[in-house]
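Task 17 of the worksheet. Students: predict the tertiary structure of the chain below and write it out as structure tokens. Keep your answer in the requested format; marks are given for formatting as well as content.
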Amino acid sequence: MIVQFIAGVVSCIGFAYLFNCPQKAILKAAIVGGLGWLMYDYAVHFWHLSVVVSTFLGTLVLAIGCEILARIEKDAVTIFIIPAILPLVPGAGLYYTLLYFIEGEFSLAAAKGFDTLGCAAGIAIGIIFVSSLTRFLTHLRKGGR
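Model answer:
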């Protein structure tokens, strides 16, 4: 598990540098991204959940962490969430979908494509859910109706 966490952190650091993230945000976003990847890996291997559900759970963990970091650092959530989310992006799934399609294995391509789309949807829904919940709770805390 510790190796998976370190791999997630290192990949987030690499992408943060590629995207020219602010220096103060790189390590923090990488740690949150590593925690999200760790949640994904734990859900797949220990809870035996599907890749789609595990991606959603990993996204929830890192989106919550990024929202907290954004409030603490008084920065935009996006500077934390963009590098943190990248270990969960289903790049291999897209690659294998296209590979199976090119090789004429249409049933395998469809199956892998649905998994890949499910993972992408899990990421989007996880981020939207946490962002919406944060806005709602902030609105309630400030005395809104």
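Marker's comment: The mean pLDDT is 95. DSSP finds six helices and no strands in the chain.
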